Predict the 3D structure of the following.
Amino acid sequence: MTLTSEWAKDLPSPPFFLLYIFPLLYILEKSFENLKIPVSIFSFVDNGLIIAQNKSFDISNSQLFCSYNILSNLLISFGLVIKHSKTEIFHFSRSQGLFNPPPLDLSPLGGPILRPKDSWKYLDFIFNCKLAFHKHIDHYANKAISTVKCMKLLGNLSRGINPFQKCLLYRCCILPIALYGFQLWFYNKALISYHMKILDKMQRRAAIWIIDAFKTSLSEGIETIAGIIPIRFHLQKIAKRSQMQPFKLLSNHILRNLMDDSPLSSTSQNPHSIGSLTKHQASVIKGHLIDSCNTSYGIFPSFSLLNQEFSPGSRIIDIFPDRFSFNLVTK
């Protein structure tokens, strides 16, 4: 269950605003710890997100209500207010059937009565309660097709554009739109048949526009002539490249902390890291972060720098023991 809200601000720039609310977030986390409210809070400049995990909707609503009350009082003391009209609530569920979660009544705090929606758009990512991302794919594929239709106007110029320029426009301007947020749904053992069907239709429309082919032409043929690789292989290529990006971040970055596969041994370590998972959880859980961790640690295995095997010349002697001889001379 997630609760999102936007905070009104009157500060010159986002960096100054972040410096301003940093003490607020620190006080807020300490208040949750003292009251033993098991919720998590994230802040993206003036947009906040409160997360509660429970098996009961009533318990989650009560925790979110208390958290919302504490947050609103702290914001008022800091000279800020919550835009109640932009506050939303959304539920994620693993149940196979339909469920009807109860609304969250924030009227005692001056807020609205929040009723969960079927889909939730946050930071331009579209979620549903089952994390199928069908609406996310439909939205960005239709947006890419609309971009292709608009680019047809470029062909009406006095000189027009050649197929090479069309292909370059497709790869630079249309593909990034269609594949926005692909890490959410493209990972190992994910069900992507629906996603590939929609994206193949989008790429077919683009390939027909690039080489001015007939609509009855085969997709494989026109993609080959246009110089476009199949969308599945393109996704595999950029997915492998993006799996190495977290290791370019600082060691104290939140993604590096989550990808720590060492066993949970201290309180300072993130309890949500991969190392804190049990064997069953590690085998069941799926996602782009898990794939990135498995791939990267397989490429760069950890080793001890002080091991005797890494001493100068030791490895060469092990490989060619008959080519080296030593004489001990004493005086």
The radius of gyration is 27 Å.
